[in-house]
Amino acid sequence: MAKRPRRSARKASTKSSARKSSRKSSRSSVRRHVPTKGLYGWITHTDLASLNPTATKEWCIKVLGWKFQPGFPMPEGGEYHLFAYSEKGGGGIRPNNPPGVPGSLPYVHVADAREAFEKALREGAEEMMPPTRVMEGVTVAIVRAPGGVPIGFSGP
């Protein structure tokens, strides 16, 4: 019986690493979030609309010391840059969508985004964006509270 040549340990580990890497990247492409129950009612996410998201991101890194995760594409174009300023809070920077103006929008962490949205409407808010699932574990909605203030809800 002929002996098969052994692969070198280096080649074997390289192939193994490549397989692990491809599995890892396919898993990491699906964004997920697990809500933190102790933070209901807190502003835990702030959405920044910018005319130049990359410039805003670089400024936030240099001036505020914020940490960023890899960005991801948005359905309407552009890239969403997720940041964290603490273990419990952060947000994202996105391109401004005219006719809107550059600015910020706070998102309040809630137990149920649809329920919070419906309660807000019953209590006098106006609909700006109905509950929309953005990733596994995260549904967002936006209302205009009495007085004209936009408020977002984020939760399951």
Question: Characteristics of this structure?
Answer:
single chain; 156 residues; alpha+beta; 9 strands; disordered N terminus
Describe this structure in words.
This protein has 156 residues and is of the alpha+beta class. 27% of the residues lie in helices and 36% in strands. It contains three helices and nine strands. Strands 1, 2, 3, 4, 5, 6, 7, 8 and 9 form a nine-stranded mixed sheet that branches. A hairpin with a 5-residue loop joins strand 3 and strand 4. It starts with 8 loop residues before the first helix and ends with a strand.
Please summarize what this structure is.
It contains three helices and nine strands, in the order H-E-H-E-E-E-E-E-H-E-E-E. The chain is of the alpha+beta class. A hairpin with a 2-residue loop joins strand 7 and strand 8.
Class by alpha and beta content: alpha+beta
N-to-C series of helices and strands? HEHEEEEEHEEE
- Count of helical regions: 3
- The beta-strand count equals 9
Give the fraction of residues assigned to helices.
25-40%
Which segments are poorly predicted (pLDDT under 50) over 5 or more consecutive residues? Answer: 1-28
Q: Look at the structure and give the mean pLDDT.
A: 82
Largest sheet, strands/sense/barrel? 9 strands, mixed
Rg result = 21 Å
Bin the strand percentage.
Answer: 35-45%
Distance between the termini: 61 Å
* Overall shape: globular
